[in-house]
Amino acid sequence: MSLVVYFTFILFSIVSACDECVLSKAAIYTKPTSLSSGTCGYGSLALKLNGGHVAAGVPSLYKDGAGCGACYQIRCKDSDMCSKRGIKVVLTDINKNNKTDFLLSSRALKAMALPGKDIHALKIGALDVEYKRVPCDYKGRNLAIRIEESSKNPDYLVIQILFQGGQTEIVAVDVAKVGSSNWTFMTRKYGAIWETKKAPSNGPLQFKFVVTSGFEGKNIWAKNVVPANWKPGVIYDTKVQINDIALQGCTPCADTQWNSPCFLGL
Prior knowledge:
The chain is mainly β. 8% of the residues lie in helices and 34% in strands.
């Protein structure tokens, strides 16, 4: 069983659309593989999303799977223990422990701590930490679709959504044959996994993603993504990316470090 160390926070504010700084509770798994089988459905790919800096979030952050892939900046307040910059993590799982907001991978802890202080941080067992949601930036990588192994060409299509940029949430997915306006809606199976039992056949596929940013929604259209002879286990580049930033409706963290360029993406 993985060793779990609890980080104690003080509630600072309520998470809202503006994603201001929050102080709460978190726990840390000492093995990064503990989060690779998370409920978002990323599997072993979770550890490739952000160098193993991944986390599980409470239901209010997980949002029934819509929060999968969201990015958060986290740092502890002990300047003798941790860097001021902190770390960025990608949400890959749900944390059902109502005493903690996050479960962090050990790689995330090591990246947050000053050199040589990560072991001490585990032993001390209590650190003040703050976090806020930040935009994801996968440095030139487009939004991608992975065909899950359970898919059966041509009718049953199950996809996993990877490398979603920006600060938005995908709330709906439609699929259609390229050149057709007859869209078939997909349902969220769980986490970042979507499915349909009525996939269009006899042609390459296009996708339409409905994303929300604060109080607004928009369509992202990915043309000619999946070939007609699509195969399970293959990752397809959508050739588009989501770069929208959530609407800001409140005051950000008072500390200007949070607003510096190093906090603007992965």
